[in-house]
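Long-time lurker, first post.

We've been arguing in lab meeting about whether magnesium ion would sit comfortably in this protein at all. Half the group thinks yes, half thinks no, and nobody has a model to point at. So I'm putting the question to the forum: if I give you the sequence and the SMILES, can you give me back a predicted structure of the complex? Inputs are below. Any interpretation is welcome too.
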Amino acid sequence: MKTSELQNIKQRYNIVGNCDALNHVLDVALQVAPTDLSVLIVGESGVGKEIIPRVIHDNSPRRREKYFAINCGSIPEGTIDSELFGHVKGSYTGAINDSPGYFGVANKGTLFLDEVGELPLATQARLLRVLETGEYIPVGGTEIRKTDVRIVAATNVNIRQAISEGRFREDLYYRLNSIPIQMPPLRERGEDIILLFRLFALQMAEKYKMDRVVLDEGAKQLLMHYKWPGNVRQLKNITEQISVLSPERTITAQVLSQFIPQDQESTQLATIHREGSGDHSFENEREILYKILFELRGNVNDMRREMSALKKQLDDVQTASPVVPQVEHMPATTFPTPITPHPAPVASVEDAIAEEYIEPAQEMESLNLNDIGKQMLEKALERNHGNRKKAAQELGISDRTLYRRLKQYGLDQ
Ligand SMILES: Nc1ncnc2c1ncn2[C@@H]1O[C@H](COP(=O)(O)OP(=O)(O)O)[C@@H](O)[C@H]1O
Ligand SMILES: [Mg+2]
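Top reply:
Settle the argument with this. Predicted structure of the protein with magnesium ion, as tokens:
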């Protein structure tokens, strides 16, 4: 596979990394895409398995047909057969119409069966049949239906254990596994870890409208030697925490170590340790931060409202009595800063992570804190059993402000 072709794919799907194992994965995905072979993607949780079936579908002759991603672990056992293989009218209470199921609607397209190891045994038998013959019988039906669906499945490494415990059919495993694709864990990707950190730092800078965090040499070393049990997903979460919580924008190993779980086996959120302050969880830190942002935003809004009321009064006076000397417009600096549109997103991931500088945030208003504010209010009220006075006290805002916010979020009923 030519390097430029790989670069194209990475850019198109926002895939960051250049290690041999990742390049090999993409290479295999592109090679098998034009065929109808079943592909089984195996890898730990959080390694990025979900990107691959999309790459396969989009580069296959089926690209103009339907693509469905189904998380087999999240569909209840009682309905999964009907979801996948459809049902006939009246086959169970609530089956008021015939349903084609995913295997019906995805005909000629691709189905991605994520967490395939979670399928119940009965469903596995149906799946094996449709894979081998292209035929299936809907729930409650007798008539055989035909379908032409390409299957890409994904599983974490525990599927072998599931086979040994009799929870997963070995014959189905081999049938799905015509082409195995092994996603490498993050800890084996060397410098890619740093590239991914840069990508996520950039995304968070954009999301929270703040300067991007950068790593110093010591921090890079720490990042590359950590075990990453939660893989890319964990790195993304930690980058988000650092971006939001660290007052420093240049991250040292010492700062970074506060965000990385001490127990390397653990995938839980990092606990922040500060000298003299004892332990407090990230959740609390975040709440405090949100609280400050929330209040600041309120103040800016109040100021804006008051200024526009004032301006309106002035305008009214001017139109009502033209003899009154013209009031000079107030200097722009006394008005709240106007909202400046956020800079357009950078053209590509590669360009983006090459960028060394991001404009600092200009305007509090542009922070999208609505959801956060609402959540905070709800939580504070919950903790105080609906007592508004106490909730306001806890949040450090006046009763009036609390009432206004409740109204604003439709919580005042
Ligand atoms: N190489 C990569 N480049 C950019 N983002 C990635 C990469 N690999 C994974 N991600 C991101 O990491 C997160 C977890 O990936 P996901 O495909 O859901 O993992 P899995 O299905 O293996 O548990 C997603 O947000 C995904 O976009
Ligand atoms: Mg997944």
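For your lab meeting: Confidence is low (pLDDT under 50) at residues 264-284, 322-369. The chain has 17 helices and eleven strands. Whichever side wins, do check it experimentally.
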